[in-house]
């Protein structure tokens, strides 16, 4: 018996076995007892910031509802939800983040802060009111209008992820 032939056959067999098998694991972070908690009520967050960009509040509200629709089995209701989320957009602002060697602003930082009130009618120990903030920076050589939609979309994604994790992830 030729050992090289057995060795090659073993390697080919192992490769075929590894290529044929795959493991798929999906983890969305939600730790919800669906036997007790079946519904969620998400109110629209009004924009109470002194600086307002019109599309921001609808973008935020849609993304917040979407993340719960896509990552939980909770039914969204208008009232009497087992879980309740409401709040407001408190701040949308920009500030100079860094200065160039010539003394001018080199980067500008945008930030959005939202206040969230969360109520779990099945376990009031989990209730909270908390502020969440997301930031994004851009080169000052660019205008805000050129980058605003992209950066606000990124910050909203970050904010809704933070809110999701704080309310139903519990890990």
Number of helices: 3
What general outline do the C-alpha atoms trace? elongated
Low-confidence parts lasting 5 or more residues at pLDDT below 50?
A: 16-28
- Widest sheet: strand order? 2-1-3-4-5
* Average pLDDT over all residues: 86
State which percent range the strand residues make up. 25-35%
**Largest sheet, strands/sense/barrel:** 5 strands, mixed
Total E-strand runs = 5
**SSE pattern:** HEHEEEEH
Structural class: alpha/beta
- Radius of gyration, CA atoms, in whole angstroms: 24 Å
Instruction: Report the span from N to C terminus.
Output: 56 Å
Q: Helicity, in percent?
A: 25-40%
3D architecture notes:
The structure is a single chain. With 171 residues, the chain is α/β, with parallel strands linked by helices. 35% of the residues lie in helices and 30% in strands. The protein has three helices and five strands. It has helices at 3-20, 56-71, 144-169, and strands at 39-42, 75-76, 83-99, 105-120, 128-139. It has a five-stranded mixed β-sheet with strand order 2-1-3-4-5, with helices on one face. Helix 2 runs parallel beside helix 3 (144-169). The radius of gyration is 24 Å and the shape is elongated. The protein starts with a helix and ends with a helix. The model is unreliable at 16-28 (pLDDT under 50).
